[in-house]
Design brief:
Number of domains: 3
CATH superfamily of the largest domain: MetI-like
Strand content: 5-15%
Shape: globular
CATH class of the largest domain: Mainly Alpha
Largest sheet: 3 strands, antiparallel
Structural class: mainly alpha
CATH architecture of the largest domain: Orthogonal Bundle
Number of helices: 14
């Protein structure tokens, strides 16, 4: 995480574009720009700005309540904090919510913007991964059972095509086919977010049908991977001695697949899904932008277009933390599915 934070900070610190102009607009004078630079801490050396950034985003941080020239000055206008204990006469150690800055354009807290956008992107990612796992496991097992048949060969060809299809192209293609050409049949919209404004002035309402196409589009590539992994893993498990023993004892094919093949074949699938989550987050940027789905992807694209660096930095940092936590969670799940992983650890 420290490496991710460092890369994000350094990357956006050396990018061209003056943050003071982004904050104030084009109509600004020299004295006003200097005041804003001082307020944002841009007048400090890069190393001190980095320390300030770490202090802002950390839930536990040091602050100096008296000396306004200190890099650890506690600014009550930025965030509220609770003092845990004092260090000397002026320095305190506090607990607070991570402070990701304010948007240059809307002046809103980046954390507030993320709290609105993250649930939408999280729901999109969960629906996509659920679709990929359920359909991929089912198709992979069927391909293994009907090995080298027309069904197996056709599914593998479609899987390769699915892995080769870029997310942004798939989003455009799906929107054109299912929400334009077949709109009368499907009833789906080409554009729309999770919440839609009522035409009758009743505010916003939950519109789940706008989740269907983005979720399927985002789940196409992991679906193809899960299908192939499940097929190959199932074929390997089906060739093991204990499976042949189960057949010799007279167990039905359904019970053998359910109790022996599927559970043991899921281990590589779980590992692959954890790696695909990062790719899904990256693909969500394009998918959300094409379908105008108001999630983190749209926030990142909008922030880049307007040079709204705090929004982009906060979004990338938030996503990175989520991916690290998911990787830890997947390691735990892998240990539950395969107890040998705990023994090796």
């Amino acid at each position: 995480m420290l490496g991710i934070i460092s890369v994000i900070f350094l990357l956006f610190s050396i990018l061209p574009g003056d943050s003071t102009i982004m904050t104030m607009g084009q109509r600004s004078d020299v004295s006003s720009e200097e005041a804003v630079r001082k307020e944002l801490g841009l007048d400090l050396p890069l190393g001190l700005r980095y320390v300030n950034y770490l202090n802002d985003i950390s839930p536990l941080s040091f602050h100096n309540q008296a000396n306004t020239k200190s890099i650890f000055y506690l600014d009550k206008t930025k965030y509220e904090s609770r003092t845990l204990f004092g260090l000397g006469k002026e320095t305190v150690f506090v607990v607070k919510k991570p402070y990701l800055g304010r948007s240059y354009q809307s002046k809103r807290l980046v954390m507030e913007m993320l709290n609105e956008a993250i649930p939408k992107t999280a729901l999109l990612a969960l629906m996509s991964i659920f679709f990929a796992i359920v359909a991929g496991v089912f198709l992979g097992v069927l391909c293994a059972v009907f090995k080298n048949t027309w069904f197996d060969k056709t599914t593998l060809v479609v899987s390769v095509m699915g892995m080769s299809l870029p997310s942004f192209f798939a989003a455009i293609l799906f929107a054109w086919i299912f929400a334009f050409l077949l709109a009368d049949i499907t009833g789906l919209n080409m554009f729309g977010s999770l919440y839609t404004v009522s035409d009758f002035g009743d505010g916003e309402y939950l519109d789940l049908k706008n989740l269907i196409l983005p979720a399927i589009t985002l789940g196409i590539r992991p679906l193809a991977t899960v299908t192939e992994l499940m097929r190959n893993s199932s074929l390997e498990i089906m060739s093991q001695d204990y499976v042949r023993t189960a057949k010799a004892k007279g167990l039905s094919s359904y019970k053998i697949i359910k109790n022996h093949v599927v559970k043991n074949a899921l281990n590589p699938v779980v590992t692959a899904i954890s790696g695909w989550l990062a790719g899904m987050m990256a693909g969500a940027v394009f998918v959300e932008y094409v379908f105008d789905y108001k999630g983190v992807g749209v926030m990142i694209v909008g922030g880049l277009e307007k040079y709204d660096f705090p929004v982009v930095m906060g979004s990338l940092l938030y996503i990175s933390i989520v991916l690290v936590l998911i990787s830890i969670f997947v390691d735990i799940i892998y240990g539950v599915l395969d107890p040998r992983a705990k023994m090796q650890g």
